[in-house]
From TrEMBL:
It comes from the Bacteria. Pfam families: Aldo_ket_red (PF00248). GO terms for molecular function: oxidoreductase activity. PANTHER family: GH17980P-RELATED. Gene3D superfamilies: NADP-dependent oxidoreductase domain. GO terms for cellular component: cytosol. This is Aldo/keto reductase.
Amino acid sequence: MTDAESTDLALPTLGYGAANVGNLFRSLTDDEAWAVLEAAWDAGIRYFDTAPHYGLGLSEKRLGAFLQTKPRDEFVVSTKAGRLLRPNPEHQSGGLDTDNDFHVPDDLRREWDFTEAGIRASIAESQERLGLDRIDLLYLHDPERHDLDLALAEAFPALEKVRGEGAVTAIGIGSMVSDALTRAVREADLDIIMVAGRYTLLEQPAAAEVLPACDERGTGIVAASVFNSGLLAKSEPTRDGRYEYGQLPEQLWDRLVRIADICKDHGVPLPAAAIQFPLQADAVRSVVVGGSRPAQLAQNAEYAALPIPAELWQNLAAEGLIPA
């Protein structure tokens, strides 16, 4: 099994997920996006994750422009493959990609392509948008939304091939579906996977099969969406918080309140516990957080470094809120 150590890829424990600089949920100017990235760098963040999907390439372009001003050996960058960006014949003047929550012109569209040629094209086009000569880590992005069987038959072997050629240092899958993550770990030769929203302080469905599969295969994990759509981003959660694509279920709200109360009893800000919780698992090597304002990046870095007493985790486990 190839792992991050054998591919010489060391991931910092805190990363920045650059969907926001692709105008996720709201539009940022180039200067505003630059200020966010600069705040991340100033806070010590040296792992940056992006994707063609984020803002139809805008995230890669903005991130790349920023990283080109930094020494290449001082940061790690990951992007994703599986969707190619191609001209959108249905684009009309003023049309935006808001169906995908990105406030950018929809003059491009995403086209699934799991072929080896498609994977190679995706790498080349991402490198061009980033302006970087190499990509450290390449994830196959949400393959279950298209055809997971096809991904296992074509895309992952292609990823393994380009890794073997040195085109990328490490490969993996990025997904929020536990079954897809588990199958990919067991059936492909992956270095690192990105688990989005499925191993968080609030809920841990990935603990059942994804983490054991990674432990067996020596596969590393990057935990993303650890604030559960913002529910864990404040020490005092609110009932009207958004949960993925809808309202927060009552059972999860009750669980959230119990977790927040225990954190308060230990004097630990809820967001700090949310960032540090996934790192308690041996397989988790990094936590990636987003943010669209410079102050958020500085605050998240402080939360990531905040000492947390072991008793907090023990108390949460005793209450059945996190795995023992």
